[in-house]
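Give me structure tokens for this 100-residue protein.
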Amino acid sequence: MVESFFDKKTGCLTIKIDGRFDYSCHKMFKEAFASVTTATSYDVNLADVVYLDSSALGMLLLLRDHAGGDKAQVRLLYANGAVIDILKIANFHRLFNITE
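Here you go.
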């Protein structure tokens, strides 16, 4: 499940993923960020993610590109140890601000 909230005051779009972060989330995840054109920063709340696969990594890269690539302000928040391990193996700690 994917939920999103846009804070007009801060310009931050928060996307929360619950459960499995895999291809079944692709459409909802893409719609969550594509529908907001005025966001200046993005938070992806991973607190309730129990599984993450390569398609989820691809979705995060799509978000990063949408947000401005190297200039993007995208934070991956509250990931558990297993999710952080996957993100680090994929070298995502070099592309994203990852906060436990």
